[in-house]
Structures are given as structure tokens and as C-alpha cells.
Design brief:
The chain is mainly alpha-helical. It has helices at 6-21, 25-38, 43-55, 59-71, 77-89, 93-106, 111-123, 127-140, 145-154, 158-171, 179-195, 199-211, 219-232, 235-239, 262-270, 283-292, 305-322, 340-346, 359-367, 381-401, 411-416, 418-429, 475-486, 494-505; strands at 251-256, 275-277, 328-331, 351-356, 406-410. It has a 5-stranded parallel beta sheet, with helices on both faces. The radius of gyration is 23 Å and the shape is globular. The chain starts with 5 loop residues before the first helix and ends with a helix.
Amino acid sequence: MTRLSPQQMSAMAEEGRRRFSAGDARGAVALFEQLLQEQPHHPGVNLMMGMCFASISKHEIALQFLERANASGASSPEAVTALATSLRYLGRIDEASALLDRHLAAHPDDRPVIAAKADLLHFTGRNEDAAALLEPALDRSPRDASLVLAYGRVAHDARACARAADLMLALEHDPSLTPRRRSLLLIRLGGVLDRLGRYDEAFAAVTRGHALAPEPWDASAERAQVERVISAWTPEALAARADWGVDDPRPVFIVGMPRSGTTLIEQIVDAHPSAFGAGELPDIHAMVHQCSRGMYLADLSVLSRDDAATRARRYLARLSGMAPQAQRVTDKAPLNYRHVGLISVLFPRAKIVHALRDPLDTCLSCFFQSIAGHFPQGRDLGRLGAMYVDHLRLMAHWKRLLPGRILDVRYEDVVDDLEGQTRRLLEFIGLAFDERCLRFWETGRIATTSSNDQVRRPLYRSSVARHERYAAHLGPLKAALAELHASGSAHPDAEARSTRNRDQSA
């Protein structure tokens, strides 16, 4: 193999950093992988590999590189915050906190680490402590992007939100911001303006933010993939694999669109003494990618009986390591709705819970998030609407294939009748009712998604019909969702919603 010259390595590293800053983490990884072949222990290259994988939510992979960077001498604020962030998302909160505290004890004015500590405090429900840490630092450095971004997440009361909005607007055109950071700033600004009731400004900010980080997406190719999956996973194909996998009832898969209520469902189940919420596990998606090198499994010949059993046992061993005593363990990776066929083969007794929420609210909530990972649909409301339609078509197919194995749980129904829906959910997954599930916010459990803040509080209604505040901006989304009615496949929530409306008006 021809070795790279120092000049080539320097140019490759610079291009990798440029791609990462522009939001192309995968393109950056391809370059840094080449550099690692030359210098496998280089702290800077390992750090960038870790940051790239962290930015697409592959935190287990990221942690390997970040720990290697740390062991090789990378002790910059960037390295410390990256490592702490991955530890946090993997649920290793105490380790992340100790790492940040050690650094701040030696470098108390390191602004990126102050911001990371505030993020961690917010993540664990200590919002007042986070604000108290940030506000003096912002008094000294009001144009520091890391502090301002952290404050935009922490700010909730009117005074703090107003200050956060002013700071963010003042920073929007700062030439030192990378496109990726400016995009995140604007999306987070949209959330702050939403909390202030400045809805038109909020929508405009989020739109500007997504425009700064465009990602290609082919709706027709996505639809063709869904069609191939539906054609491949037939009753005959499933029957031929009926005795594959491992006969174990522990896994419960919570699937659906992002922002549809999957985290809430998991928190309710996790509050049960015989259950454990494992969060969003990457395992099923990784299996599909290994088999098909794609996002869907449409060629069933790539999976053998022995392979299915091996993969199922490996997954169950992971669950056992996380919760050895639990009778049920939830995996709430929402996009596993694409893989329900595979799940049914690997785990013939596993139950699937399908989270549903008003499609306008679901898609709008996705649009207002900077969802980590490969999620180009989230940057455009029309794309989100098309994705929602495809998701429903695929779920309808799985329900026809697997009668009795899939339970729809509607967010609005949970808000209206927590106890009734909790009893229904627990009965479906085979657990006795337990009152603690009705007080899910008291467990102290930390969810590792953007819904973490919401599920640490009792249920509230402000997220129901949120789309009404943005009615003037939802034309592309409504046009995409209109296909549900044009095709005759109405949203499964429509009848229930209509019944609720009649009951409320009676």
C-alpha cells in the first residue's frame, strides 16, 4: 500500500473537518478512516472519528474512538465534551459528570465544557442548576456559541426564553459559525420562539436552519423500497420461517414515526417493576444493514435459519446484560417499523407496539428537531408527510401478516385516559397492572432522546393539536398527507379522533 505524504494527510484531515462541519459526517468518516490506516493512534484523527459517529447517533462506535483519543493525549475541551456527550447518550451519566467536573476543576473558565455540563444537568432534570451555571458565563461571553446553544435548550420561563432568543438572533450571522452549528442554532431558536408564542418567527427560524444543512432524499426510491418489502414479506415467506429465531417473550419493540410518543410508552412500561426500558438500540438496524447494505430487508434469501438464531441469541444476550431480571425489555428505536418482518422471525413471541400521534403534530414536531443520524426527511415538511404515508402503508402490511402481534397506542388516547391505556398496554405485553406505571415520571429514569424533558413530567395537553398554531405554514405537509385519503387508506387514528370529538361535543 502506498503511504500518504504528510501534505496529503494534512489536506485529507482538513477536507474531513470541512465535510464534518458541513454536516456530511459519513463523507468525513471515509477520509479519517484512511488517515487511521497511517496513524491508528493519532489523537486528533480518533477524536474526529468519534465526533463523526456521535453526530449520527452511533455512540457506541463513537465511544471507542473517543476513549482512544483520550488515552492518546487528546484533552482539549472539544475532546472532553465529545466523550462526555457519548457517555451521556449511552446512559453512563455518572461517568460523564465526573469527567466534566474533573476538567472544570482544573479549567473553570472552559466555556465548551461549561456548556456540556449545563446540557448534562438539563438532561438529568436539574434545569435550574443548568441555568445558574450558564448565566454568569453568558454575562462574560454572550457571543460564545456553545454557551448560547446550551442556554437555548435550558431556557423555559419567559425571562430566560427572551434572553435566549436575543442571544441567538445576535449570533445567527456570526461568521465564525460553521454551517452545521448555525443550522443547530436556528433550529433551537425555533424551539425558544415557540415557547414564547412567536410562532411565525419560530417556523421561519427552523426553516432557515434546515436550509443550511440540505440532505438529498429520493421519495420515489423510498416508496419503491417499501413496495419491495411488501412484495417480499408474504404470508408464505413468513410461514416458511415460522420456527426460526428464539422463542423468548422478553423483547418488546416500540415502533413508529419519530416524535410519535415512543418515549412516553417506554417510560410507562419501564416504571413497571418487572420491565426495563433499554432505549433506542441500534441492533436491529445494524442486522439489516449487515445483511442488505441498505435501510430495508427486501431479499429474504440473505438470512438463513442458523443466522437468524445466532443474531437473536446475540440480541437477547445484550438485553440480559442490561436487565438480567426483567421479564420484558423494550427497544424503542422508532424506525424499526421498517423491520417488523425480521423481528417476527427472530423473536416469534415478541410483541410490537405501534406508537401513533396526529400526523400533523408528529411531522411538525420532527421538523422542529435536529434529529441526529441519517434523517434527511426531517428537513422538509413535504418529505415528512411522504414518509408518514409510507410508514402507515408498511405498518398496515405488517398487521395483515401478524394479526394479534401489533398494538396501536395513540398518544392522544394516553393523554385522555392514562390508566385505561396503561392497562391495555400492559395486558398486551403480558404484565400485570401496576400503579407505578401511572406515575412514570417519578422513576428518575433518564431517556436518551429529545423527549427526555417531556417524560420527566406528568402528562400535559399542550402538545395535542400543536399544529393549529402553525396552520398557515403546513401546506406542503397537508398535500403529502392527502394521499392517505386519496388512496382510501385513512389514518388509523381518524375514527378514534372522530369519536372523541363527538363525545366531547355531546
